[in-house]
Amino acid sequence: MPIAEAFDFVIPLFKVRWNTRAVLEGLTTHYQPRAIHIVTPEAEARSLREQVESWQVAPLHVHEEEPFFQTIGLSKESICAELDLGESLYTPGWFYQQLLKLGAFEGIADLSEWYMVWDSDLLPVATWPILQEVGGNVRHSFALLQHNQYGNAKIVETWAEWIRSVLKVEPLTDDVGTFVPHHMWFKQSHLKAFAQQVKDYYQSDDHWLLLMMRSANDFGTFSEYWAYVSWVAANAPEDLSFYPYDRYGETTERFFDDGTGLFSAALKLGQAVAELADEPFSPSYEVVSAFVNVEYGSDEPPSSLAFESSPRHLKKDEKNMHIEESRSRWNPRMAETART
């Protein structure tokens, strides 16, 4: 029996891509949210509003990211101006996207108390329930999708130091997975307490979003998902529910595909799609799901597919790949290794 709880999705979206439609329709198909809120740059917002009219999606609200926090007197420019890292792997926009997730309740009126943040490139396939009823109580569950075997140990320790120092709690860990699962339930009351702790740490009356950005200057980086989960684990463990890595993480796959990768090429070939300048490739979830079913056949289907768009994924040595990348049949680096 479906659990009758109205909730919203929040999705920061840097750019409308070939897989955007499939992701949004997939979330609608599997989870039936009350609404989906997209936060995206102004130019992308115009494009998205035009395209979604023909998509089979839940009520969709498109927010421009530059003035997203205007109701509290902040702009993207003013928040990003707080960052002064000099030479760094991280851009102001990378941190700002994290603040959009944590601070969505500051920018969206009438956002559900519990809201699900979902990374824009994560396609649900043989996916997991996100609401469960246990003993008469509703559990808001996410899935661990990233193995902890690989990763930059120095960066991970910096994230942990931020959590211990700023939040005054111990970072939550798992024997197998990481708490960077590319989706997360957030609860507004916990986020407000989290925000107050940031203000207490800095002993400042400045807005907590500004302080979060300044914290990147102090520590070099932070992890929004891991920080939030650690806060909840320490202060409201009854509101923390997740599936272990072996339930859904072991079948998820990550790979580069910006519309020119192996997956999209095979999908286009199967659909006999001609790439026309005035007709961008934007397959429906129904089409993508049917393609996956055929491709995997009797093999266990993936729980999810993450379509990475950064070309750096094409340059990774095998030793630096996440397990979810190295096992994917759609990873061109692994396909190249297999040929040789």
Low-confidence stretches: none
Q: Report the C-alpha radius of gyration, rounded.
A: 20 Å
For the record, give the distance between the C-alpha atoms at the N and C termini, rounded to a whole number: 51 Å
Seen as an oligomer or otherwise, the chain set is single chain
Description:
By secondary structure, the protein is α/β, with parallel strands linked by helices. The chain is 39% helix and 15% strand. The chain has helices at residues 20-31, 42-51, 76-80, 92-102, 104-107, 153-167, 188-202, 208-219, 224-235, 245-248, 262-271, 285-296, 323-326, 332-339, and strands spanning 8-12, 35-40, 60-64, 114-118, 122-124, 131-134, 137-143, 183-187, 241-243, 253-256, 304-308. Strands 3-2-1-4-8 form a 5-stranded mixed β-sheet. It has a 3-stranded mixed β-sheet with strand order 5-11-10. A 3-stranded mixed β-sheet has the order 6-7-9. The protein is globular. It starts with 7 loop residues before the first strand and ends with a helix. The mean pLDDT is 92.
Topology:
Blueprint: E1 8-12, H1 20-31, E2 35-40, H2 42-51, E3 60-64, H3 76-80, H4 92-102, H5 104-107, E4 114-118, E5 122-124, E6 131-134, E7 137-143, H6 153-167, E8 183-187, H7 188-202, H8 208-219, H9 224-235, E9 241-243, H10 245-248, E10 253-256, H11 262-271, H12 285-296, E11 304-308, H13 323-326, H14 332-339
Helix pairs in contact: 1-12, 6-9, 7-8
